[in-house]
Amino acid sequence: MTLHPYILLALFLFSTGCASNPTKPIDSLQQILKDEEAQLTGALLSEQTAAPFPKQGPPKLGLYIMPTGFLHHKFEWTDADRETLQAWANGLQREGLISGSSFLHLASVKGNQWAQLRESAMRYGTDLLLIVNGAAAVDRYNNYKGTLLYWTIVGAYYADGTHSDALCLVRSSLWDARRGTKLAEEEAQGASKVVGPSGRTEDQNQVTEARRQALTQLMKKLRDDVARISRAR
Fold first, then answer.
1. 2 found inside a domain
2. Each residue of 88-128: pLDDT tens digit?
3. Which end of the chain is less enclosed by CB atoms within 10 A, N or C?
4. Is 9 inside a domain boundary?
5. pTM, to two decimals
6. Residue 72: how many other CB atoms lie within 10 Å
């Protein structure tokens, strides 16, 4: 009596059991981004304690994307991401919600970065300061095809045995650049999944798509925040 069918059945049940219900560490990503914002800005006034703007024209918006590429982030912001944010800001200007926009940069990674960022905002005549940060997580696992066929080189490149599930969380905070008070905060998430051969399935492709989705949702929420603040001026 051959044992091969039973071995294959056991491998099938084991692999599908491990692949079911992959977890998404959304809570962990949220905590990472909150901690990093706190490290940048310190313990400052919340949205509830922010003073209203004096009556004047549409505000100028400063854009700051926090550096990624560190542990737990899984990606780096690209020029395409910056162009997407700039195009969104240009749309706000066409609507008359802001008078203009520009990206802000830190002169140094040392010292009080929040003070540096606000000084940069003052140099550019910025009224509102938008800080954007993001992080991602990838759940990569094999199904029964991977268990059965990945022991061959051909299987690793042609058997659809690998799942790559990416989750991206982006978080933003909108500040009164002059007073240093928080006016609004938002977060959005995106997800992307693919099943393919291990040798040809790139996690980064899924992270990029998840980030694109999250950024699109975030900009929709932020538009409403900017409109509310602009109307109050």
1. no
2. 999 999 999 999 999 998 765 555 778 888 888 888 899 99
3. N
4. no
5. 0.77
6. 15
